Amino acid sequence: MKATVYARGIPQMSAFTFDSRGRLWVTRSGSSQHRSDGVYLVSRDGAKPVKVVSSIRGPLGLVWVGRSLYVSTLDGVYRFTGFTGDRFRQRTLILKGPAAAENNNLVLAPNGRLVLGVSANCDHCTSSPRYSADIVSFRTDGSDLRVLATGIRAPYGLAYHHGALYVSMNQRDDLGAKTPGDWVAVVKPGQDWGFPACYGQGGVACEGVPAPLGVLDPHAAAGGLAIFDGAVLTAEWARGRVMSVPLGGGGAAPMLTGLSHPLPLAVTPNGALLVGDWGTGVVYRVTA
């Protein structure tokens, strides 16, 4: 593998997507303060990032659908239309909430619906607001909200590959020496992943709970996810590295190390991997 710098100057980057012209779009989200949050455009490899959306709280996912850019935030999901080259003419909140929790990555499903990961509102609560600790789906106008899968403490990274939905999952952090590693999994409609009772320990609490594709490090803060070079890659924000799990499942191994806090991952239209370092504001381009 070879890594080069694709772009600089977007600290706290949280998500990537590409438009129909192959331009990179990036969200910036602080961990607790959101005064500098926004959406940036990087027109090409090496170009200076341009901020095109401000006054937005905690954007952690974005995706283009036709001529509309959808962004998931702490307030809900926004649709931006009428891009003029440096700004959008219209901003519409199409989905409020859907829960009093963190909205994570956003992806377009093969059936044309939007899919969103929603964190639980706590580390190991036994009850939480409706739609929290869930993956939900809805139409591109925000209507027909449905639960796709439930019982996931924090489903962050989302990616479809050959029709299957791959997800990075943050696990409980309160179990001391029994703390499980974060997970990479293939999620199917209707599944219940058992949060908070099941965390991979087996026994009655985990009866009927699906098995993960791969297990990451404990307290890893599993982030962005991408399918690259025959593997599922996941950023470990807290560990400063990108981990690789075989598409068919198996052990996780480091693919890229020495980063500060990697978070967003994406594959470019020409097949390279982009890795965004939240801690340094550098986007790296990785090729085989």
Give a quick rundown of the structure.
This protein is mainly beta. The protein has no helices and 24 strands.
Question: Can you walk through the features of this model?
Answer:
With 288 residues, the protein is mainly beta. It has one domain: Neuraminidase (6 Propeller). Helices cover 0% and strands 49% of the residues. It has no helices and 24 strands.
SSE topology:
Elements: E1 2-8, E2 13-18, E3 24-28, E4 38-42, E5 50-53, E6 61-65, E7 68-72, E8 76-83, E9 88-96, E10 103-108, E11 114-118, E12 134-138, E13 146-150, E14 154-161, E15 164-170, E16 181-187, E17 214-218, E18 222-228, E19 231-236, E20 241-246, E21 253-256, E22 262-267, E23 273-277, E24 282-287
Antiparallel strand pairs: 1-24, 2-3, 3-4, 4-5, 6-7, 7-8, 8-9, 10-11, 11-12, 12-13, 14-15, 15-16, 16-17, 18-19, 19-20, 20-21, 22-23, 23-24
